[in-house]
Amino acid sequence: MPPKAQAAGKGRGPAKRKLAEEFPLGEVLTDTSKKSWKLGAPIGQGGFGLLYLANDNSSKTVGADAPYVIKVEPSDNGPLFSELKFYMRAAKPDLIQSWMTSHKMKYLGVPKYWGSGLHEKGGKRYRFMVMDRFGTDLQKKFEETGRRFPRKLVLQLGLRLLDILEYIHEHEYVHADIKASNLLLSHNNPNQVYLVDYGLAYRYAPEGVLKEYKEDPKRCHDGTIEFTSIDAHKGVSPCRRSDLEILGYCMVQWLCSKLPWEDKLQDPLYVRDVKLQCRDNVSEFMSKCFSSQDKPDELQKFMEEVKTLSYTDKPAYQKLRSILEAGLKSIGTKDDDKLEFSSVVSSNGAGPSSSAKKTSKRKKVVDYKEESDDEVDGSPAKKRKSPKKKGVKESKTASPKKKAATPKNTAARPKKALVEMGTQTTPGLKRGRGRPKKKAEPVE
Hints:
This protein has ten helices and 13 strands. The protein is an alpha+beta fold.
């Protein structure tokens, strides 16, 4: 069970949802644009949905080299519906390609949306979404390398994520759940990484109007507890600075193995308070994570820059990129577009070796984010009533006894990544997510 999210120590368990039934090989699904998709073998289960290999040519058998996957859930479940809202607004192939062209980018790590719809079988209705096929997730890589990434790789991942975040931020969304298990390598190119799982994506600026800062005690600690932002700990809806703060925590953990609050993840108030102390004194935070000779100055500068942002500020993405690029230059290298995963030691800037110990089991406490506007295919998604928020204009400006670390015994262990999608395979709701208040309306 996840830790209790409310300050008073009381929380509610996740709603019980139906599990998706397995479809036979060759089942044909037709999306809203009347395009047919044929299902291949299931490659695992994520949350309450099943993932299948798929092809857009219904006349051919779907083989192991299929380029697509299809996620299927019972139509009255909420997680996939939440993701669809983001994908249909911000992840259409032409939108992504246009952005890449205008920004002279080789690729952008945002999964493309290829189609969605409803499918009926045996008197039951299922919602499905077609996506790109991916490879392994970075959490698995993190464990395989002794819970440390090389400094060059960490800075390269930071640069890729800045590209991704700038894109989704400019399309009115924030991700709110950046972490290694939500970063997947391309199926065809191991040097490309994609940010997935938009179930918590929040539309922070519908029609360009920013949501105002408002604390809600009922929503405290949303996200993945070790990485979630201070805003989320206070029950504030995520914003652009929230994503960048989470990215900062991720980069520090990838480099030093363990964040200072990871021994008490079951106490979200403690985690919040330590993060507040670290934000107030970034230099002291870095000293807790790294030895003096291994301290990465660029990560301190990155976090100091993020610290200056107000709730509605637009981040200076290029300035943040320059900070990370300067870090690469300081270690005598540059971004060569090659992601090299290897075991590292403290001399590589990874911090004291003693930090690679077992930590508390990862806990996650979340509520699904709501939107008041009409959603997918014109169907409103009203899972929870929330107070109306005024728009504002955008600103310019006690753990268990520790053991030696091994991939088997480490903390924050990956969610049994699928071989192809990197999505959790354990049955049931994704760890710690709160329930939607009402069933999602079906997509027509």
